[in-house]
Amino acid sequence: MTQDKPVSAMAMMFVVVGNMLGAGILALPVNLCAAGLLPSIAATIVMWLLMTYTALIYSEQKSLTTNEHADLPTFFKEELGSIGKWVTIVANMILLYGILVAYLAGISSIIMSLQSSVSQPVVMTLYFLVVTGMTAFGMMMMKKCTPYMVTAMWITFGMLVFMVVPDVSSENLAKFDWTYVPAGLPVLLMAFHFHNIIPSICRTLNHDRKKIRTAIIGGTTIGMVMNLTWLLVVLGALPLSSPDGIDLITAFGKNQPATIPLEMLLKTPAFTYVALAFALIAMSTAFMANGTALMSFMRDLTVTYAGTKNKTLVWCLSFIPPLLVALIYPDIFLVAINLVGGVGECIIFGILPGFIVWKYSKEGSFRKMTGIILIICFSAIFLIEVGQELGLLHISPDVEYWTHHTH
């Protein structure tokens, strides 16, 4: 009887990158466009540090990573009581449902920008059937296929950057306004999201702390470099506003991924199809991971509250609601990402890990102080997003203003 071959930290690094680079990277330049390049770079580096730290915090929680049936609500019930459990349940549903809605809306928008013969509901439904079918294979398929998919993602990403670089203008990169940075923070959170798979990474690497740290820090660093590169070329190639509507503010107003205005700018079939391939690979890889996490989460809920493990019920509860929302609101791409990052991500992968560090660190220690910093930083992002959604704050760029007053 042969033993399973040990999985390398490099393989899990690929899994981290594959989970990170989904809808977030396509939305990042659009949401941060009014802030400009320098503020966007600074915000990206800070978010990389914060999200990498919270990922490492989760990887240290043995009660979460050693038990194959452990889930976040149960973990936080043990740590923070029943309030922690229910806050986690609600936040996780917003997070996972919202991510799948964003992927469905984003992919269908990109495909619809290329053709008009097939309706958007049909396009979305066909993609949904394919990607949920792939998700049925779960972590087994992710381990085997993710390195190849991430390699293909890097190749297509490199081709996109190569094609856009000639259109980068120093004039576009010179404009910046720090006051618009908060508008992009929820999307930045989404761009560094992979935390749902940390328990699986820890178990796959046999709880080898060195390998786990290498996989997490290496994966997030690669993701950060790709996010910064993408910000540079997109903010440099596309103006904030222009008379012909091929600009970032118009894309923001229409809830579009960054590849759509780039396609209109370059007008080359090569870019169009490479951009489609990149988006399909990036979003499908992330859809599989988050879909797997959502099914596991729903399975826990149905067992706990309905006393059943019925696979059909779990599948329907996991995938039908996001499909219906995306079909009813097909232009919800950026809105969904902002809600995911500003509410779900903030709570589960920002504020709650901060409480864990604060609770278990020595009084007066530097580590305890970092827990307080995490709580303050992520609570601020949460309040900004809730304020914007309720109309109490308006930090996002105003489409009418930018269209008529900036040139």
TrEMBL record:
Compartments in which it is found: Cell inner membrane
Which source organism does the UniProt entry give? Maridesulfovibrio ferrireducens
State the Gene Ontology BP annotations: amino acid transmembrane transport
- Cited Pfam families: Trp_Tyr_perm
| GO terms, molecular function | aromatic amino acid transmembrane transporter activity
Q: What is its main location?
A: membrane
Q: How does it sit in the membrane?
A: Multi-pass membrane protein
Q: Which UniProt keywords apply?
A: Amino-acid transport, Cell inner membrane, Cell membrane, Membrane, Transmembrane, Transmembrane helix, Transport
Tell me the Gene3D superfamilies matching this sequence: Amino acid/polyamine transporter I (1.20.1740.10)
An example GO CC term for this entry is: plasma membrane
Q: Among its keywords, does the record have Nucleotide-binding?
A: no
Which protein is depicted?
A: Tyrosine-specific transport protein
Q: Which InterPro entries match?
A: Amino_acid_transport_2, Trp_tyr_transpt
Which sequence ranges are marked TM in the entry? 7-28, 34-58, 86-112, 124-141, 148-166, 178-194, 215-238, 270-291, 312-329, 335-358, 370-387
